[in-house]
Write a structure and sequence with these properties.
binds flavin-adenine dinucleotide, four-stranded mixed sheet, Uridine Diphospho-n-acetylenolpyruvylglucosamine Reductase, domain 1, 3 domains, 8 helices, Uridine Diphospho-n-acetylenolpyruvylglucosamine Reductase, domain 3, about 350 residues, Uridine Diphospho-n-acetylenolpyruvylglucosamine Reductase, domain 2
């Protein structure tokens, strides 16, 4: 467990570290100077060095939501803080502290094995626990912000460790206080609050279909169903480079939705938590004829138009070029702007 405040050795630093295997697009990329962070107390000294040398910096978790350039200038902090433990449990809920470098899916599986359900809808999302609050990861009708109690981070503005409560994290659809303040926080630990009263959440269309003849599936059954659906629908980054959904589902006012629906009766959409309408970006892209199309070394996945893929030897420039074409066509056709989801580092 690395949560203890004992002093840890200085982090390993590596010049010109290759990152091809640390970004799920599989782009050829390298970090000018990489620091492997295995404990929070290594961070202040590293950040002092970075500030003294006036280096640009960023954090890299599993690299499953980033678009990397060929060279990442300055310092790259590789988040490898391990450890997960139950810190308290009462009649209502269980609090679990998890290190920022822990693999997300392994944590979800560990929680289930320890009879702590709640996160099963988010199984198989690639990446680290520390990145989960950044874009408030979500899938199959659940967003992680609902289960986060607090987040520990190093604040590069105040040069101090801070704890943000759930409210202070300002979670919203694929958004958070961290995302709104880039180059500021390094998430070291996330504390999850899992309610003791568990309820299956299978309203999302794919899960509802899966359990149409079974009204009360167990958390393990939901976990397995989510893994099965995702494996079927999404390309495995080990086989074909991708970063999952490339665009956010655009949220539009109800009047715009009604106008679009009138023109396109098949328009796929969902009600948004704020009362507006969330359009299925994949449907919009599909309607523009991009599904399965290739542009040089990159393309749109044949089974899911929301996923852009690297067919091999693609670069950030290639993928952003394709994204621009898609954005322009969708804007022209539907009057809707598609926001890129992965972080352009
Ligand atoms: C096949 C596939 C399926 C996916 N499905 C989903 C899905 O269903 N739902 C979903 O929401 N996302 C999905 N994603 C996107 C991705 O898995 C998540 O966004 C994940 O949380 C990214 O984790 P990471 O550790 O790889 O972060 P990275 O890609 O390394 O980083 C993402 C961003 O977070 C920042 N960051 C990372 N770690 C930290 C930290 N400790 N402190 C501060 N900043 C940090 C980085 O600087 C970067 O800006 C999918 C991706 C793939 C490849």
């Amino acid at each position: 467990m690395n949560f203890a405040s004992n002093a840890h050795p200085s982090p390993k630093s590596s010049p010109n570290l290759g990152l091809k295997h640390r970004n799920t697009f599989g782009f050829e990329a390298s970090a000018e100077l990489a620091y492997e962070i295995t404990a929070p107390d290594q961070i202040p000294a590293v950040m002092t060095q970075i500030a003294e040398k006036k280096l640009p910096w960023r954090v890299l978790g599993g690299g499953s939501n980033v678009i990397l350039p060929t060279v990442l200038p300055g310092a790259t902090l590789l988040m490898n803080i391990a450890g997960q433990e139950i810190i308290s449990s009462d009649t209502n809920s269980t609090l679990i502290a998890v290190g920022g470098g822990v693999n997300w899916h392994n944590f979800v599986a560990w929680a289930l094995e320890n009879n702590l359900p709640g996160l099963e809808n988010l199984a198989l999302i690639p990446g680290t626990v520390g990145a989960a609050p950044i874009q408030n990861i979500g899938a199959y009708g659940v967003e992680i912000g609902e289960y986060i109690d607090s987040v520990d981070a190093y604040d590069a503005n105040s040069h101090a460790f801070v704890t943000l409560t759930n409210e202070e994290c300002c979670f919203a659809y694929r958004d958070s206080y961290f995302k709104k303040n880039p180059q500021r926080f390094i998430v070291t630990k996330v504390v999850f609050r899992l309610p003791k009263q568990w309820q299956a959440r299978i309203h999302y269309v794919d899960l509802a279909k899966q359990f149409s003849e079974q009204s009360s599936p167990s958390p393990e059954e939901i976990f397995l169903a989510v893994c099965k659906i995702r494996t079927h629908k999404l390309p495995d980054p080990k086989v074909i480079g991708n970063a999952g959904s490339f665009f956010q589902n655009p949220i539009v006012p109800n009047e715009q939705y009604e106008t679009l629906l009138h023109e396109y009766p098949g328009l796929a959409s969902y009600p948004d938590a704020t009362g507006k309408r969330k359009l299925a970006a994949g449907w919009l892209i599909d309607q523009c004829g991009f599904k399965g199309q290739r542009m040089g070394n990159v393309g749109v996945y044949e089974n899911q138009a929301l996923v852009l893929v690297n067919h091999g030897n693609g670069t950030a420039q290639d993928i952003l070029g394709l994204a621009k074409c898609i954005q322009e066509k969708v804007k022209k056709e539907f009057g809707v702007h598609l926001e890129i989801e992965p972080n352009i580092l």
